[in-house]
Amino acid sequence: MRHGQKSKRLVLIRMVLEAVAADPASMGPLPPVHAAWKLLGRVQYEDPGAFEKILMHPSTGVWAAHVLRRLRGVGSSDVPLWTEVGYFHTLAAAAAVRAGVEFHTQVPVPDGGTLHLPSLGTVRLTHADPGGTRPFVATVRGAGRGVGSVAVVSPRGACVLLPDALESPLADWRPLPQVRATRDGHSLRLALDDTDPYASFVAGREPVVQNPQSRNRWQALTEQAWETLVRGQLDTADGLAEVMCSLVPLEAVMSGEPYSVTSPESFGSAMVQLPADATTLAVSLIHEFQHIKLGALLDLVTLTREADGALHYAPWRLDPRPVSGLLQGAYAYLGIVSFWRRYYPTASGQEALRSRFAYALWRRGTLSVLDGLLASGELTELGLWFVTNMRECLVRWCEEALPPRVESDAALAAADHLGIWRLRNSRPPESETALLTEGWKHRSPTRCPEARNPVVRADVLPRERPVRSELVRLRWEAPKRFAWLRRHPESLGATSTDIALIDGDFDTALRGYRRQVTAHPEESSPWTGLGLAAQGHGDGSAAAALLGRPELVRAVYLRLAGEGTPADPCALAGWIGGRHTEAAVAGPPPHLR
């Protein structure tokens, strides 16, 4: 995979070179692009390792893809084009610094004050106009290896000499922050890429520049996470250390799942929020490592062929996903399930409870997604083989026994998430809703239609927070917070009825959700809660409809109310879920079309 990514980078760099050569004016006041190409070629010849370090640095791929889009007119930016195209010279200068060769070049300083040398660090420069922020051109000279061998000179003549030991900070030189961890002879080294202008690849998510305190926090969590990975899954740890070279540090998260993301243009890197604990960091690293691997594989082979407009359910998201996104998520969660499976037998105390619940929840959810992928008709022959092998792993894992309470809570959280997703994203066919409405009015089961696939839509209804799922998760992850929320559910957006359901008081929950549905039938959460309460109460017909086709029950209910024939939601659900309409509520599996 790494060789494939190296080829991809070389092709991208060549494409940028040819695009700039075809439009020399795009280089602005900088030297011609072939000067940078020549310097890179010399570094590649004299020190292939230094060349490859810059070529494979994650931000190089982000820059190349971004600037190529700009040059082709399919991308835009407020940054002057010449400063972005001129980053070619910056890459060449960074490679030459690493190689210790003699060189002389000019580079853009886009913000008028700092020059970032990718994979190395940041130089602080004096602007041509004091206090200005306009971009300017700086000169970088290398005299070969030796004391003061690299100098960066601003237009006003201010000179910054880089130290020979580039990891050493100076007044005007800030090395790229690093975190390192070693356990039992296995090492991990990650750069915290917080000032590279092309480190971030998600609009609106900018890196947090590290100070000693935040960097120390990253260091401590990385050491603990690495110990967990080496102790529990050495094969995964070694692969991760081989592939991942940097993180783009985002703001800290105090609770819940931290945001993290990768890009196929940024092989070896991930944008990650600083998590609250080391176990969560270990999970985030594995999650993004899985995405990186699959992204590299998909650059070499084709696993999916997406049907036009087809969208699917993923238990880790509230929006519907195309098959490519579903496959990415399934492969990422296969890694997460593997982590929890190996971790929970060795964990103790609260960590053991947390990990068992996570293992129960995600093994079943990921298996359902793989079943959906196999039934979608959108996998290539190689994709079918790939997903089938993933499924074989999960089938074996799902046969491993866990405590019944863990399994039941995981099932409740999964059903709650799916129900809310269906209500938000799917709409039953109008003809089906109309026939069931008439059937209810006349109590005529023969008028009930056969089930047909609902129409899946994205982001049509407001996104509702799955608070019951969060409460169940907190029962296992943070018991003290859960105990407090039982007394103050409104602080999470939950109700006392939600607490009654989670406590197993299904009579109270049924009455509460019936009132909520009657008062606010347009909301999704009460309908799903009603189905869960009916299931716990033993009302199989109502539960079958409310959990299997909640969008259909709600559509019929709203149509009846609009026609002046209000219905009791439980009675209506029980009627739709009865044996005489069993086919109508069975519905499609979660991989909706």
Q: Explain this structure to me?
A:
The chain has helices at 2-21, 33-46, 48-55, 58-71, 81-85, 87-99, 212-232, 234-243, 278-298, 323-343, 349-375, 381-398, 404-425, 430-442, 467-477, 479-487, 496-503, 506-519, 525-537, 540-548, 550-562, 569-576, 582-586; strands spanning 102-109, 114-117, 121-124, 136-143, 150-153, 159-162, 173-175, 178-183, 186-192, 246-250, 260-261, 269-273, 426-427, 455-456. It is α+β, with helices and mostly antiparallel strands and 593 residues long. A hairpin with a 7-residue loop joins strand 11 and strand 12 (269-273). Helix 9 crosses helix 10 and helix 20 (540-548) packs across helix 21.
Q: Uncertain spans, ≥5 residues at pLDDT below 50?
A: 579-593
Give the DSSP E fraction (strand runs of 2 or more residues).
5-15%
Biggest beta sheet summary: 5 strands, mixed
**What distance lies between the first and last C-alpha atoms, to the nearest angstrom?**
33 Å
Number of strands: 14
Number of helices: 23
Helix content: 40-55%
Averaging pLDDT over every residue, what do you get?
91
- Order of adjacent strands in the largest pleated sheet: 8-9-10-12-11
Radius of gyration: 28 Å
Bulk shape: elongated
Instruction: Supply the helix-strand structural class.
Output: alpha+beta
Tags for this model:
four-stranded antiparallel sheet; 23 helices; alpha+beta; 593 residues
